[in-house]
Structure formats: C-alpha cells, structure tokens
Amino acid sequence: MKKYRYVCLAIAACVIVTLSSCNNGGTSTTENSPAASTPNSASQTTETVTHSAHGSKKQININTAILSELDKFEAQLGVPALSNKIQANRPYASPEELVSKKVITQAQFDKIKDQVTVQEVVLSGEAKDVDYMTKLGLMKGHLIVAQELLDQNQPKQAEPHIGHPVEEIYVDVEDQLNDRKVKEFKTTLVSLQDLVKSKPKDAKVKTDLTTSMQAVDGAIAALPENQRTQPAFVLQVINGLLDAANSEYGAAVADGKISAAIEYQDSRGFVQYANDLYKGISSQVAKENPEADKTIQASMAQLTKNWPTVIPPAKPVNSPEEVTKLVKTIESESQKIIDASKTQAQQ
Q: Do 36 and 138 have their domain in common?
C-alpha cells in the first residue's frame, strides 16, 4: 500500500502526444528548465499542446508524473510499488535510466519504452482547461471516498484520501488556481487533514469536509459555465478521470485479490465523480448521439459495479482487464462526440 498517492493525472497522458495527425497542432520549443526535473538539454524540450489529440502515442514524463500516472506502468508490468520506485529514483536524464538505475529490467522497459519520456509538457488552450478540471475532479473523487469512510466510522482509512488532494494534487494545480484568481483553499484542506488525525470524532470534521468540497466546486466554477457544461469538454474530463481510475484499479488488484485498499478506494471515488459528471450531460448527448449515450450509460453502469462497497471485498468483481475494456468502450464512444464537436467547430 502506498503512503502517498499522486492522483492526477491521467489527463497529462492524454495530451502529451504528437499532434501531427491533427489540424492546428502545437509546436515544440526548447526552454531552460530546472535541473531537478529536467536533468539535461534533451529533457528540456517543452511541447505546447493547444488541444486534446487522439490517435497518437501517449507518453508519461517520469521526472514529473504523479503516482496515478506512473501506476499505468505498475499495472502493465505487474510490479508492486513500481510507481513509488520510479519516483524515488528521480531525476532521469533519459528513459533508459529506468534500466541503468535498476528500477526495471530491460525486458520490462521494452514493453513500455514508447510510453516514457523525460520531456516537460506545457499545456495551453482547451487542453489546459481539461487538465485543470480533471485535477480538481480527482480531488473531488478523493473527498467523496473520504466522506463515505467517515460515515462508516473509518477515520484512519479516510485520512489518506483527505491528505491526497493537498499533498499530491494541489501543487500541480496551484499555478492555474492563481491564474484563474481562485481563492486559496490549501489551508482548508490541511486543517481538515489535521483535524481528522487528531480529533476524528469532532463534529467540525463534517463541516470542514463540506467546506473543502465546496472549495473544489468553486474552483471548477472558475471555468466558464458554457464550457464546463459542454458535452465534448466534459467527456474529455470524464475520460481523464476514468483513465486514472483504471490505472489505480490495476494497481489495486494482484493475484486475483484486492491487495491495495487505498488504490481501490481511489478508483471508486474517481468513477463515482465521472458518473456524476456524465449524468449532468447525458440528456444533451442523447439528443445529439442517442446510440453513444446508450452505450456510455450501459458501460458506466457496469463499471460502477466493480466497487460494490467503499471497504474493498476480498476478491475483485471483475479483473483489471475487464475494467479496462469498459473504460475503453466509454472512451471510444466519447471520442466520437468529441470529434464531431471539433468538426462542427471547424465548419
């Protein structure tokens, strides 16, 4: 079980891509970056991504990726605690240092090498907005699970999920919060975490948790309403949340058992919030593409069954492969709507 869990970031994997297959793609420039995160000049290439792309290789920056992103490798290779090991051996001058630093074997590296980069990525345009809302959505997912655990009188299990937003996500979104003139709420999250640790039965815990939830909602509301209610935009956020949930679920299951409760609970919260977001746009999707809506709703209903309770069962309802299949179905149907929206906008 991990002591700390970085949770964003699935969305970075969705946008760190080659945009040559899309119109009006981003450009690459070279910038001076801090040595701690970009050890050599090769890693100082910055991709400016102007919109979410598709059909290209997804890459993860092993120098800066949060643990949820790195969990993709852990799930793929079946190496317990691999994401923590990758993080502990930073910085990397090249992807190949995963092997030379003995983080993984050459055979394992060969399986993921196309997904690994040491390049910094700077988001702009719609991709930046999607990233922003996805990170906040992951915060919300953690707090949803924390609420469930507190309701079941499980403060020790709830505490990590209250800690994750402030310890692992807030720093990733802080600049964007400042740019969007969102009132600081890191202090609120820290106070809630401290209170749950010291006085878990204090009535103020419930009040502070509600305040934290409202702070996240307020930060999301900094986006224009017509954007955060547009199906094509929200579906990109949903796909980011589900991608993160899929990685967490894969890391939670080993040898046919749920061996990591925190990862199971992480993925439960992310799926719950993704489902809530889809309910908000379902009627719009149904008007424009009833078949896609039907498929997404059916797949989402099946997906949520994999988390029957907030306390994980001994055995998973379905295998990680089956969960991945459902997530990919939702992503595929969502992409049809996203593509149609982009085509319409270009006309």
A: no
pTM of the model: 0.78
Per DSSP bridges, beta strands 45-49 and 120-123 are parallel
133 and 278 inside one domain = yes
Residue 150 and residue 85 share a domain? no
Q: Verify that 154 and 85 share a domain, yes or no.
A: no
Other residues' Cβ atoms within 10 Å of the Cβ of residue 121: 21
- Considering the domain architecture, whether residues 150 and 276 belong to the same structural domain is answered as yes
pLDDT per position as a tens digit, 169-196: 898 899 999 999 999 999 999 999 999 9
- What pLDDT digit, counting tens, does each position of 281-332 carry? 999 999 999 999 999 999 999 999 999 999 999 899 999 999 999 999 999 9
Domain assignment present for residue 205? The answer is no
Domain identity same for 267 and 317: yes
Instruction: Report the number of distinct structural domains present in the chain.
Output: 2
Closest CA to 307 of 282, 275, 281: 275
Query: The domain containing residue 53 runs over which residues?
Result: 10-123
Same domain, 17 and 146: no
Residue 182 lies in a domain: no
